[in-house]
Amino acid sequence: MPTQEKFDRVEELKEQLERSTITFGADYTRTTVNQMVELRRSMRANGLEFTVVKNTLMYLAAEQAGKPQVKEIVQGPTAVAFGYDDPAAAAKALADYARANANSFSIRGAVLGDSPPMGPEGVTRLATLPPRPQLVATLLAQMQAPMSRLVGALNGPVQNLDNVLRARMRQLEDE
Description:
By secondary structure, this protein is an alpha+beta fold. The protein contains six helices and four strands; from the N terminus they run αβαβαβαβαα.
């Protein structure tokens, strides 16, 4: 029988899913209480909300939020992490913890926005991306490069003409 608590929990999960840029599913079954406390602190410090969910409640929230693909990363006893800012930074934080505690914690997958779910290897690849500011700087540099080469190419003949005229002026001054 559904209780008000369950309705509230589904609504809370729905809101978290709607706000998040990335959602992770993880297996925490071999994690001790102390490790779980450490994990939650680590995730909070990196801007992630980490919670253990009941699958049926998460399925309902995923349907209501319009993200049915989340169901694929929620299988068996599941902990869910919601990232709200940079997905690569969130993936790095979770992947670092999973690597350090490989015997007790593993990532099942992630859903980035409305895209199809990615497996653990996709999360690992996402974690290896540089931070967002560095990606933006690289993109801007790539966009500026052709323009800078064009300016250099257009400026070349003008500079050559200037050099010839200056040389001729010096030659005339010397005479």
